[in-house]
Amino acid sequence: MKKKSLGINAFLNSLRNILNILFPIITFPYVSRVLQVKGIGIYNFSNSIVSYFSLIAALGISTYAVREGAKIRDNIHEISQFASEIFTINIFSTLISYILLFLCLFAFSKLHNYAACILIFSLQIFFTTIGTEWIYQIYEDYGYITLRSIIFQILSLVLLFIFVRGPQDYLKYAVITIFSAVGANIFNFIHARQFCRIRVVWHFNWRVHLTPILIIFGANIANMIYVNSDITLLGLMKSNYIVGLYSVSSKIYQIVKTLIAALLIVTIPRLAMLFGKNKMAEYKSLLSKLTNILVLLALPASVGLIMLSKEVVLLISGKEYLRATNSLSILSLAYIFSILAWILTDCVLIPSKREKYVLRSMGISAILNIVLNILLIPVMSENAAALSTVLAEICMFIVNYHYAKDLIKAVFISKFFLKNIIDSLVGCIGIVGICLLCRWSWNSMILMTAFSIILSVIVYGAILVLLSNKIIIKMLNDIRKIIKNRLL
Question: Is 108 in a helix, a strand, or coil?
Answer without folding.
Answer: coil
